[in-house]
Structure formats: C-alpha cells, structure tokens
Amino acid sequence: MNSIKSIAKPPRIGSPLIAGVIYSIIWLAIGALLLSCLLYFSNMKENNLPQYSLAVHGFSALAGGFVSGKRSGMKGWYHGALLGLIYGITVLTIGFLAANSGLTGKSAIMLLAAMLAGAFGGMIGVNLKK
Length: 130
Fold this sequence. Notes:
By secondary structure, the protein is mainly alpha-helical. Helix content is 75%, strand content 0%.
C-alpha cells in the first residue's frame, strides 16, 4: 500500500500565444522593478530611462517569443512576431490609458522592436524544442 498521494500538477496553459504573453508580462514586471531600484539606489538619471525601458521591452518580448515558439513547436518566427505585436499593443494601450500618452515615433520603434525580438525568441524556442 502506497500511503503517499500523488501531487496534482498545476494546469498547463494550452495556447502558446497566451503562455508567451503571460511570461513576457512577468519579465516586464521584473524589469520594471529592476529599473525602479536602479533609479532609486544609483545615480542613474531619468533621462536615460527610455533607452533602458526599450531594452526591458525587447527582452520581455524575446522571452515571451521563446516560450511561445517552444510551446508551438513550429513557425516560431510567426508565433513570436505575433506575440511581440500583441505585447506591444498591450503596452501602448496601457500607456495610453494610464498616462494619456499618444502614438509617437518612439512607440512605433518599441512596437517594431517587440515584434523583432519576439520573432527572434520564437525562432530560438522552436529550435531548442526537444
């Protein structure tokens, strides 16, 4: 008789795109927290913040594209670029609603960077599929 009960596993997210968006938002939160700590505890100026935030957005889209591509198993560039587009539109929408920021050239650059980073992450994720 086995007295140890099996541990229930948490539910797995079925859609690779939704899983990638969740992972990219988690990485965005970590990056925003890191930038906030750097801004508070170091002598970093607020003028440098847009460049660092673009890097955080790029890394977040890369990580989300990686997860999306790895879970999809095929067409990683497509899933990653779609994830980057959804991620970028979500960030722009939140920025518009929270800070009343409009569409500028910098927002178009962020959207393009998110799409490219997501596509690259998706390609890496598909090729690392075991």
